[in-house]
Amino acid sequence: MSVIEASEVRYAYPDGTLALDGVDLAIERGDRVALLGPNGAGKSTLLQLLGGLLDPDGGTVRYFGTDQPPGEVRDRVSVCTQNPADYLFNPTVREDVEYGPAQLDVPPAEADERVDRLADRLGLEGLLDKPPFRLSGGEKRRAALASALATEPDVLLLDEPVSNVDAANRRAILDLLDELAAEGVTLVVSTPDTELAPHVADRVVLLDTDGTIVRDGPARAVLTDTGLLERCDLVPPQVVELFSRLDESDPPLTVAGAVERLE
């Protein structure tokens, strides 16, 4: 069943610039999808439309096979935007993580349990009573992610979740996304990074700067199509480029895959 279905979605920015033009996209339960494209391709805009943060100028977005408005599924669909400040606006991290459950009238005792569980999972135990502005960039990312997860959503939409974070925070976030996928959470990640895409997605939706989807398919098929990626102003994954130059017809997508192949 489609958890989110966009049909003929069109969106233009206030200055009239067309961001998305007739996009059709179905996100299925349990999918791990990367919205991939160069800067200006409308990835973040599409993510916000899928999450109900923006209303389309044309077309429709449906949730869980119904015509429920976005406000009625906010406990099931959560968006973690590129800017952690969108989630971190209370005096303390704890209050930020509690904010979502409070809007859904989750009993305080249950909300506290969720906060403690997420703090343990994301390594935020010593940060809950700190003001968000005192956190490092990576800590802010993890705190924002905790806030997005506090409603216990079925679908998590993330915009560039590991941009501008150090290696340790990147690894912690990617490990958590793997765990969430294993638990059945549907994941949609917006990114311009072809190196990241195989770590977060089994399926890649490739957008171009004309506001259209040019390819939607398995990650391997899209990320090894070096000609198509280059036409969309994207650099193919380095491992793919290396093995392609060695005339490998089925190159690995990651360093770990390359090591396994070479061994």
Automatic annotation (TrEMBL):
<dbReference type="Pfam" id="PF00005">
    <property type="entry name" value="ABC_tran"/>
</dbReference>
<comment type="function">
    <text>Probably part of an ABC transporter complex. Responsible for energy coupling to the transport system.</text>
</comment>
<keyword id="KW-0547">Nucleotide-binding</keyword>
<dbReference type="GO" id="GO:0005886">
    <property type="term" value="C:plasma membrane"/>
</dbReference>
<protein>
    <submittedName>
        <fullName>Energy-coupling factor ABC transporter ATP-binding protein</fullName>
    </submittedName>
</protein>
<dbReference type="InterPro" id="IPR050095">
    <property type="entry name" value="ECF_ABC_transporter_ATP-bd"/>
</dbReference>
<comment type="similarity">
    <text>Belongs to the ABC transporter superfamily.</text>
</comment>
<dbReference type="GO" id="GO:0005524">
    <property type="term" value="F:ATP binding"/>
</dbReference>
<dbReference type="InterPro" id="IPR003439">
    <property type="entry name" value="ABC_transporter-like_ATP-bd"/>
</dbReference>
<keyword id="KW-0067">ATP-binding</keyword>
<dbReference type="InterPro" id="IPR015856">
    <property type="entry name" value="ABC_transpr_CbiO/EcfA_su"/>
</dbReference>
<dbReference type="InterPro" id="IPR003593">
    <property type="entry name" value="AAA+_ATPase"/>
</dbReference>
<keyword id="KW-0813">Transport</keyword>
<dbReference type="InterPro" id="IPR017871">
    <property type="entry name" value="ABC_transporter-like_CS"/>
</dbReference>
<feature type="domain" description="ABC transporter">
    <location>
        <begin position="4"/>
        <end position="235"/>
    </location>
</feature>
<dbReference type="InterPro" id="IPR027417">
    <property type="entry name" value="P-loop_NTPase"/>
</dbReference>
<keyword id="KW-0472">Membrane</keyword>
